[in-house]
Amino acid sequence: MPPDLHVLLVEDNPGDARLIHEMLRVAGPEKIHLDPVTTLEVARERVQTRHYDAVLLDLFLPDSRGSETLLQMAAAAPECALVVLTGLEDDQLGLEAVQMGAQDYLPKGGVDSRLLLRSLRYAVERQRAESSLRRSQEAYRSLIDDVFDTSMVAVLILDRALNVVWCNEATEVYFGIARERLLGRDKRLLIDEELKCVFADPQSYSARLLEAYETGAYTDRFECHVLAAPGRDERWLEHWSQPIRAGIYAGGRIEQYTDITDRKVLEFAERAQREFAEALHDISTVLSSSLDLNDVLERILASLSRVVPHDAASITIEGDEQLHTARFPNAEVISATAPSVTPWHYAPFMRQMLRTRAPMIIPDLQRDGHARTALGELCSYIGAPIQLQEQIIGFINLVSVQPDFFTPRHAERLSAFSKLAAIAIQNARLYDSSRRLATLEERQRLARDLHDSVSQTLFTCRTISETALRRWEKDPARAYELMRDVNELTAIALAEMRILLLELRPAALTQLGIKQLFEQYLQPIQERRAFDLVMALEEIPALPPEVQIALYRITQEALNNIDKHAQASRVEIRVQDQAGNVILDIQDNGLGFDLDAIALTSLGLHIMRERAEAIGASLEVASRLEQGTQIRVNWKRSETR
C-alpha cells in the first residue's frame, strides 16, 4: 500500500479548497493528509514547524501574486515538492514556474482527481530524487571545495586528451601559477612552456612525466626541487601520478605533489652534520699527521673549505713573533677584487674577538668604512678565535666576495674547527719546543763527551808528551814507551772525535752497511769503557735509512746505560738476519735490575722503546739481579716498507 502523503494546500478560495479536498479523498488507496491555509505568510510559517511531502500552491493569494509567490514558497520549503494549482492557464507562466522549482503546473479547470493525485505522486518522487541528487552534489562539492581544494597536497586531474580539468589551491601555491593559466590547457605544453622551469632539474622532471603520459603507466614517486621566485617559495615536492581507469575522465590521469620540505630539511641537516663530523675526523687525522708548525698552518687552511666555503682564508698565530699565513681558494676572483691581505687588515676584528672570545660575522664589509678601505671589494667576513683552554693563541679569518654569505651555522662550524686547529698548533709548538730542547741536550751531551773523552785524552797526551820530552836525553827507552802511549791515545781521541762528528752528521750513519757501521764507530771507543766489547755481526742486506739509524741509536743508548749503571765486564752485540727478520741482541754480564721497579721509570729504556716503535720493531728486555741484562730488537722486513 502506498505511503500516506502530507500535503499543504495554499488556496484562498473556499470552494476550490473543498473541491480539491474531495478529489484527493476519492482519488486512490493512500491516505492524503490535507492541511489548508489561505495566505502565503501562514504557509511559510507552517512549513517551518510541520513536515509536508508536497505543497499545492495557488499563485494568486491575498498577500502575494504571480511568480513571486512561487519563489518565496520554494525558498521557505526547499525539500517539499511544489505543484502549482492555479486558475490561470498560461503556458509561458507554467514554463517559468517549472524553471523556478515547481515540479508541475496544473490549471484548475483541467484537473480531475486521478490527474491531481498522479501529479502529486510524481512530484513527490521527483523532489525526493532531486533532493538526494542535490545532497550528493553538495557532498561532492564539499569534498572538492572543503577537502581537496584546501588540502596541502597539490592535485591535478587530466582528461583523456591530457588537458587539465581541475586543480586545487595547493597547486597554485606550490608552482606559483594561477589556476586560470592551467585549466583547460594541455599538460604536455604546460610542462614545456611553464612548469619545468619551476624545478631545479627541469629536464629530468619533464622526461619522467612525458614518458608516463606516453605509456599510460603509473609514475613512481620521485622528488623534485622547486626553486624560489616571486610569488613562489622554495620547497621540495614528492610527485606521484596514475591513470584514471573509470568515470567521465577515464583515460586521463591524476597527479599529486606532496610537500616534503620539512623532511628534506631534516635529511639535509642530518647529512650535513654527518659530513661535518666525518670532515672533522678526517681533518683531525690530517692535522695530527704533521708536527711542523708551518705545515700544520697550511693544512689548517687547506682543510677549511670542507668546513666553511669561502674565497680567501688566513690564519694569524700569536707568539714570540706574529705568524700570518693566507690562502686563496678562489684566486681568480680574489686577485681582481682584493689587495694583499695582512694581519693589520683584520686587527679591529681580532681585537673584538679577543674581548668576546666568540666568532664574529660581518655581513657586508662595504658598509664598514675601515673594512672597505682595507679589504678592497671583499664583501663578507667571518672569523673565529683559536683558543687553547683559557688562552687565545690566534685567529682564523675567512672572507667572501658575496655579501651576507656567512651564517650563524658557519660560525658554529668554524668554532668547532678552531678547537681542532688549536690542538694541532699546540702539538706543533710542543714538538718544536721538545726538538729545541733535544737539540740543546744533544749539544750539552756532545760537549760533555768532548770534555770527558777527547779533551781528557788530549790533555793526557800532552802531559805524557811533556814527560817524554824531559826524559828524551836521560832515558830514551822510557821516552819511546811514553811516545808510543801518546800514539795510542791520539788514535783513541781520533776515533772518539769521529764519533762526535758522526753525531753532528746523522746522514753519515747510512753511508755504510750496519756491520761496517758498528765495526768502525762502536769498536774503536770501547777501550775507554770499563768492559770488553764483543761483536758478532752478520752481513745484512741494505736497510732503510731510518731503520739503520734507529738500530745504531738503540745500541749506542744501551752501551751508555751499561757503562753508567751495569758494572759489566763483558758486553756482546749480535746482529742476525733470520728469515727476513733483523734481530739485534745486546747482552751484558752486569748487575742486572728488577724490571718491574725500573722499566717504567727508566728514561733510557723509554727512549729505546720509542725508537723501536718508530720503525715498527719490537723491543724486549730481560734482566735479573746479578745475572746481567739482554735487550732484543726484532725488525721484520716486508715488501711494503
List the helices and strands and how they pair.
Layout (H helix, E strand, L loop, with lengths): L4 E6 L3 H12 L6 E6 L2 H10 L4 E4 L2 E2 L2 E2 L1 H10 L4 E6 L4 H9 L4 E4 L5 H36 L4 E6 L5 E4 L1 H7 L11 H9 L6 H14 L3 E8 L8 E9 L9 E7 L1 H28 L4 H11 L8 E6 L5 E5 L3 H7 L9 H10 L3 E3 L6 H6 L5 E9 L2 E10 L7 H64 L4 H29 L9 H8 L10 E6 L7 H22 L3 E9 L2 E8 L6 H4 L4 H12 L3 E6 L5 E8 L5
Gross geometry? rod-shaped
Q: Under the CATH scheme, which architecture of the largest domain would be assigned?
A: 2-Layer Sandwich
Integer count of domains: 4
Query: Which radius of gyration do the C-alpha atoms yield?
Result: 53 Å
Largest sheet, order of strands side by side?
2-1-3-6-7
Helix tally equals 19
Q: Give the terminus-to-terminus CA distance.
A: 108 Å
Helix content percent band:
40-55%
Q: What would CATH call the homologous superfamily of the largest domain?
A: GAF domain
CATH topology of the largest domain: Beta-Lactamase
Structural class: alpha+beta
CATH class categorisation of the largest domain: Alpha Beta
Mean pLDDT across the residues is 83
Tell me the total number of β-strands.
22
Low-confidence stretches: 331-339
- Beta content: 15-25%
How many strands, what sense, and barrel or not for the largest sheet?
A: 5 strands, parallel
